[in-house]
Design brief:
Number of strands: 0
CATH topology of the largest domain: MetI-like fold
CATH class of the largest domain: Mainly Alpha
Largest sheet: none
Structural class: mainly alpha
Helix content: over 70%
CATH architecture of the largest domain: Orthogonal Bundle
Radius of gyration: 25 Å
Distance between the termini: 41 Å
Shape: globular
CATH superfamily of the largest domain: MetI-like
Length: about 290
C-alpha cells in the first residue's frame, strides 16, 4: 500500500505545452537526417530496380549468371573457411605467453589496415609477369611463373584468400572475447571428467559458443554479400570480368556502361537470399539474448 501511494499517476509522465514543443524540436533533426540519408536512398534504389523487365535482361545475360555463381562461391567458401579458422585460432591466442600476445598484435594488422592498401598490395603481387610472386618464381626456378590473374580459377581463389586474410583477424578477436567469457570452473569440471585437448573443444567450448558462432556466421554472410573492395581491387574481375561478384557487376553496369537501373537491379537480386538471413539473424539474437 505504501508503495502504491508513492507511484505517480500516468498523466504526470505526459508532456504538456512547451515541453512537447521542445521534444519535437529535438527529434525533428534526427528524423530529417534519417529520412534524407536512409529512407530516401533505399526507397529510390528500390524504385530504380522495380521494373520487371530489368530482371529479364539480367537473367538473359550469361555474364550475370556467372557472376551469381561467383558470388555464391565467394560467400560460401570465404565466410565458412574464415569463421572456422578464426574459431580455431582464437583458442591458440588464449595462451598467456608474451610471444603469443605479441603475435596477436601482428596478426590483427591486416584487419586494422585500410582495405584499399591491403587489396592493392595483393593485386600488385599477382599482376602480370612483374608481380612479386612471379618474380620470386622466376628467381627460384629460372622459368616464368603462372600469370595468376589470367587464370579464372586462380584469380577467384586469390579473391577468396584475400578476403579471408583481411577479415579473419576481426572474427578471431570476437571468438577470443567469447572464449574469455566462459567461466574457468566449467573447464576445471570438464578436466575432472576427462575432457581435455580436442575433447574439451568439441564437448565444452563449441557447444557453449555455438549460438555466437551461428550469429557471427549469419552476420558475416550478410556483410559479404555486398562486399565490393575485395574483388574490385584484387582481381578487378579479371580475366575478362569472369571473376566478378554482384557488387562489382552492379558497379560496372551503373557507372562504366551507363545503366544505373540495371546495376541496382543486379544488387537487388540478392534480396531473396539477404532478407531470410536478416530475419534468421534477428530471431537468433532475440532467442539467445546475445549482444552484438
Amino acid at each position: 500500500m505504501a508503495f502504491s501511494r508513492l507511484r505517480r499517476p500516468p498523466w504526470r509522465y505526459r508532456l504538456h505545452g512547451s515541453d512537447t514543443a521542445w521534444a519535437i524540436a529535438f527529434v525533428v533533426p534526427y528524423v530529417a537526417i534519417f529520412a534524407a540519408f536512409v529512407v530516401y536512398p533505399v526507397a529510390y534504389g528500390l524504385w530504380m530496380g522495380s521494373n520487371p523487365s530489368l530482371y529479364g535482361l539480367l537473367f538473359s545475360d550469361p555474364r550475370y549468371l556467372n557472376t551469381l555463381i561467383n558470388t555464391l562461391l565467394f560467400v560460401a567458401i570465404g565466410v565458412n573457411v574464415k569463421m572456422f579458422l578464426a574459431f580455431l585460432l582464437s583458442g591458440f591466442f588464449m595462451s598467456r605467453s608474451w610471444w603469443v600476445r605479441s603475435l596477436l598484435a601482428v596478426y590483427l594488422l591486416p584487419w586494422a589496415l585500410p582495405g584499399l592498401t591491403v587489396f592493392l598490395s595483393i593485386h600488385y603481387m599477382l599482376v602480370t609477369e612483374w608481380g612479386l610472386l612471379d618474380s620470386l618464381w622466376r628467381a627460384v626456378t629460372g622459368e616464368d611463373g603462372p600469370l595468376f590473374l589470367v587464370s579464372t580459377p586462380i584469380a577467384m581463389a586469390a579473391n577468396i584468400v584475400s578476403y579471408i586474410w583481411k577479415w579473419m583477424p576481426f572474427w578471431t578477436l570476437i571468438f577470443l572475447a567469447a572464449r574469455m567469457a566462459i567461466p574457468q570452473d566449467i573447464y576445471e569440471a570438464a578436466e575432472i571428467d576427462g575432457a581435455t585437448g580436442y575433447r574439451r573443444l568439441i564437448h565444452v567450448t563449441f557447444p557453449l559458443l555455438a549460438n555466437v558462432y551461428l550469429i557471427c556466421t549469419l552476420l558475416s554472410t550478410v556483410w559479404t554479400l555486398g562486399d565490393f573492395p575485395t574483388v574490385y581491387f584484387v582481381s578487378s574481375g579479371a580475366p575478362a570480368r569472369s571473376t566478378e561478384v554482384l557488387a562489382t557487376y552492379g558497379f560496372h553496369e551503373a557507372f562504366d556502361f551507363g545503366y544505373p537501373n540495371l546495376g541496382v537491379a543486379a544488387m537487388m537480386s540478392a534480396l531473396p537470399i539477404l532478407i531470410p538471413l536478416v530475419i534468421l539473424l534477428m530471431r537468433r539474437v532475440r532467442a539467445t539474448g546475445v549482444q552484438l
